[in-house]
Write a structure and sequence with these properties.
- There is one protein chain.
- By secondary structure, the protein is mainly alpha-helical.
- Helices cover about 65% and strands about 0% of the residues.
- It has two helices and no strands.
- It is elongated.
């Protein structure tokens, strides 16, 4: 029943969509930029495992966002 209170935020939905896309875009830009930088020993970018985990989580978040955006069209 408490989820019904979120209908008050419906007029702001386009702003939330733009903010979400901006955050995802910034995430992809940072991941892409970090793969282009030269890394010194001991830096976070020198370890491939955390970078791989970040990429996997970013892709999973993108899939969840696409599913959330498409939910209104699939289940009216």
């Amino acid at each position: 029943a408490w989820i019904g209170n979120f209908t008050q935020l419906a007029p702001y939905k386009p702003y939330f969509i733009v903010a979400t896309l901006a955050f995802l875009g910034a995430g992809y830009w940072l991941v892409h930029r970090s793969s282009k930088l030269a890394c010194a020993d001991g830096e976070a970018c020198a370890r491939p495992l955390p970078n791989r985990v970040v990429k996997i989580v970013l892709i999973a978040a993108t899939v969840l966002v696409i599913a959330a955006f498409g939910f209104d069209y699939v289940a009216p």
